[in-house]
Write a structure and sequence with these properties.
about 170 residues, alpha/beta, Rossmann fold, 6 helices, about 40% helix, globular, disordered N terminus
Length: about 170
């Protein structure tokens, strides 16, 4: 829709932020790989949204206009995806009252239909790989999303400081 940032509006709102903001990188252009190489250039084929990034982007909250526009462009280009695990996590957040989203299934269906966001389902190999990751993050679902990004060769869109300790390229812009 012209003049609107983010995917089509849906019912719901954030009850509070998911994570504290990660420290910005030196140039404010996104995260750096462990060896200091910037990520997010033309060579990257796919970006995988972490759960909080999915929720922020879909509800139009918690992202700078510049970053939301970048995610919109990636989605239109067919380069933005989400792990099916994130919809499970979102349903749990709604059930716990951490986000207000009365119809998670309807929200998911409308979001995918209207935006064209690719939904990736982790296979058994990804699940095993997630269990073998070091327990830097206590949440097994976050480790599963990290393993999914690694398996797909995707940049993980996340501001979670613990996720950023894994050897997966990440991206976040404030």
């Amino acid at each position: 829709m012209p003049g609107r940032r983010g995917p089509p509006p849906g019912p719901g709102r954030l009850a509070r932020r998911h994570d504290p903001p990660a420290a910005p990188d030196r140039a404010g252009r996104g995260s750096l790989r462990p060896h200091g190489r910037p990520v997010g250039g033309q060579g990257v084929k796919r970006y995988l949204l972490d759960t909080h990034a999915l929720v922020f982007w879909s509800l139009g909250e918690g992202l700078s206009p510049r970053f939301a526009t970048r995610l919109d462009r990636l989605c239109r280009a067919g380069r933005l995806a989400v792990s099916a695990v994130s919809f499970w996590e979102t349903a749990l957040l709604a059930q716990k009252g951490r986000i207000e989203l009365p119809d998670v299934a309807g929200w998911k269906d409308e979001l995918v239909r209207a935006s064209g966001l690719a939904v990736l389902t982790p296979d058994a190999d990804v699940m095993i790989a997630s269990a073998l990751l070091p327990p830097l993050h206590k949440d097994p679902m976050d480790r599963l999303i990290v393993a999914h990004a690694l398996a797909k060769g995707a940049v993980l869109v996340s501001r979670d400081a613990l996720v950023r300790r894994y050897p997966v390229p990440t991206l976040w812009l404030d």
